Please model this.
Amino acid sequence: MSRPDALADALPALPSRTGSRRARLWRMLKPLRWLARRFLALMLAAVILFGWILNPPTTWTIVSEGVSTPRKWTRAADIAPVMLRSVVAAEDANFCRHWGFDMAEIRRVIARGESRGASTLTQQTAKNVYLWQGRSWVRKALETAYTPMIEALWSKRRILEVYLNVAEFGPGVFGIHAAAAHHFGTTPDKLSARQAAALAAVLPAPKTRAAQTRSARARAIADGAATIQRDGRAACFQDG
Model:
């Protein structure tokens, strides 16, 4: 054995600089990983709470903007089925065919270079119930985390029920009960197809749009609601 080789064998093995750096980084990140796990657990608990146990009593948006028309929680069974179909036709026609993110629509928006979003009803529910309005990377990241949890733990019908009870249908008009009373002087179970379509037409811009039963958008939504009923895209949330 040569002298250099013998000397190398006699010396203790020294940790590489790369391995040492990784170990230090891992120790530094340990508290962050602990916090991340606890935060995800809290998010999961909140999804279970409002999915199986309680109806959301209010939201950040409702508290910050105030209520002009009294709210009352309305079960999906007490909402006209055409209202459920209308909001799906207006906001998320593939609601029954995706797991929270409509990848086909996302790819289409990107390919066309459009500035509009491709947000699903599940994503909107996550934002409306647990988060705040406005655009930011933090809010979008949290929305992206909440969405698959909601899809995994809530039924599609429950998602629609919660969405319709917290969505804004006009300045200070939150929830389908207040919307039916404010715009048409009726109750959610008695909404006609034209009235349901008019309310769904308000959703993208509730502070500026009026619930007009004869508008072109309302007519298109009414047609879309009838179409998704015929072709089976309403099957996942229809009662029975």
About this structure: The CA atoms of residues 80 and 191 lie 6 Å apart. The mean pLDDT is 89. The beta strands are 168-170, 173-174.
